[in-house]
User: What shape does this take?
Amino acid sequence: MPVIQVHLMQGYGDDDKHRLCTALTDASRMVVPAPVEAVTVMIHDHMPAGYMRARTAKTPAPALPDPVAIIRDYLAAMEARDLERAQSHLAPTFRMVFPGGQEMTRLEELLAWAAPRYQFVRKQIDTCDAMHSAGDETLVFCTGTLFGAWPDGTAFEGIRFIDRFELVAGRIARQDVWNDIAEVKPK
Assistant: This one.
């Protein structure tokens, strides 16, 4: 069964190490058919003074923030219409694509696009799954259901959604949204 050893310079917190061990466990299980309890991950901490590359002492880079926490905070900020907080999670090149292929680059565009569609919408998140992609992207997929009110005030709930996010260097570079609103929206 897999035994994974990682050598890190001291400076990463327990939460960072836990996230790393979890990610390595999950990554190994995508290749090796091992039960989770059979995967061992060990981190060996090394003092920065004992590490050098190209004759230069190095210090550890800060850990990237938890991508799922970023997405959850972004979505919570959008629901609260705290655009400043939501914007703080976005990369300068941010793009979003909503049902019908509607592409936008600014949160204000999204609010204007959504205004005639419903009074408000909220997400009941069931899952948020993060994984690394090719290149520098981290992908986060959120699934669940939507609830809210149509323009006439009639409540709706239980509408399936999936959001796919691409994060680069801890910032959201792209958001793709799919949902079944068109299937249940009153005509």
